[in-house]
Every structure is written in C-alpha cells, then in structure tokens.
Amino acid sequence: MAATRSETCPAEPDFYDKLNTSWHKPALQGFMAIVVAHWGEHFFQAYQIYVMHWPRPKALGMLGLVYPWLVSTESLHYGYALVMLIGLIALRKGFTGLSHTWWMIALWIQVWHHFEHLLLQGQVLFHHNLFHSPVPMSILQLWFPRVELHLFYNTVVFVPMAIAMYYHMFPPLGEVQHANCQCAWHPRPLAAAAV
User: Fold this and answer.
1) Which site among 42, 58, 71, 84 is 20 to 30 Å from 35 CA-CA?
2) How far apart are CA 173 and CA 145, in angstroms?
3) How far apart are CA 29 and CA 13, in angstroms?
4) E strand or H helix that includes residue 182
5) How far is CA 115 from CA 74, 89, 122, 134, 174, in A?
6) Cα 100 from chain centroid?
7) What one-character DSSP code corresponds to residue 194?
C-alpha cells in the first residue's frame, strides 16, 4: 500500500507555529516596540503632571499633544489593552521554562487590565457609567487616580515581560534546547546544555 502525502511529508507549519518559531524574534521585537512606546506615553504623562505641573486634563502624553481628541477616547485605550492581550497570548508558545512562567504572569495581569478597560469601553458604548460616576470608571479607579493606576498596570505587566524576555534571550542552563526560535543571544549547544 502506497503512503499518502501526509504520511511522507511533514505538514507545513501554520501562521501561529511560525509566529512562535521562525518569526518569533521579529514578532517579539515589534511587539516590544509597541509596549515600550505605550509605556513611554504613560511616563511622559506622569512627567507632565508631576514635573511640569500641568493640570491633569491637559497632561495627555506625547500623542495627546498632537491628537488630543484621540487620547481622550476610550477606544484608543481599549484597543491598546486588546493588542497587549492578543500579543501576550499569540507569542506565549515560543517561551519555555522560566521565561514561560514570567510571560504567563504578565499575561494574567494583562487579563485583569484588559477587563478594566473593557468595563470603561462598555460604559462609553452603553452611555451608562458605573458607581454613579460622571465619567467612566474602572473598579480600581474607585481607590486610585486613573493616570497613576494605568501607569501602575503597564508597569506590572511590563516588568514580568522584561524578566521573561531576559530568560528567553539568556536561557538558564538546560532550557535552551526547548526553545524553537532564534531569540537566544548565545545559544548553548545541546551537549553543553545537558551538563
């Protein structure tokens, strides 16, 4: 009996598999550029408030200096939270061992951050603010000002991502053989990794 094509030739990797193997390094670089740019926006906004002493409604970050109407929309903030969540989910398969643990910590924190933005976006869409607030409110905004809260959220997502990236690029001895991408800066030979 003749072998079928699927038995003789391995299946071509799909988009998700390529994203976490041969495309993992450029995909991570692009994703991290977006993350750092957004984090920079939050830091610049905090700088405008605490160093330049601008009133909060005028402290809109770098993007807000050019497009103030865009920064004041919930859609922009929700869209970024969604991009973060999708990126963390889509790129997680490429992480292994210790780097995977830290990446998943960032992912679960981002799940909550996304939920908070989903609440804000829902209030705008349904024209009904929670907690009798004159403006859309997330749950933790009941206790913390929005600027500081979202700077905190972006920081607590970024820190475990940075740790994950460190362990992904400089894998601990014995873990390098499990990574299926070229992200490691100094990949160890398999024989050396087993020692």
Assistant:
1) 58
2) 43
3) 21
4) none
5) 13, 15, 10, 20, 37
6) 14
7) T
From CA 194, how far away is CA 38, in angstroms rounded? 40
pTM of the model as a whole: 0.83
41-55 pLDDT per residue, tens: 988 999 999 999 999
Structural domain spans, the chain: 73-193
How many beta carbons lie within 10 A of that of residue 23, not counting itself?
A: 19
Residue 20 phi/psi, 5-degree rounding, is -105, 10
144 vs 193 pLDDT, higher one? 144
| DSSP conformation letters of 74-98 | HHHHHHHHHHHHHHHHHTGGG--HH
Distance of CA 1 to the CA centre of its chain: 51
User: Is 95 exposed, middle or buried (CB count within 10 Å of its CB: 0-12, 13-18, 19+)?
Assistant: buried
Give residue for tokens 């670089």: 29
Residue corresponding to tokens 């497009």: 67
How many CB atoms within 10 Å of residue 44?
18
SS3 for 24? helix
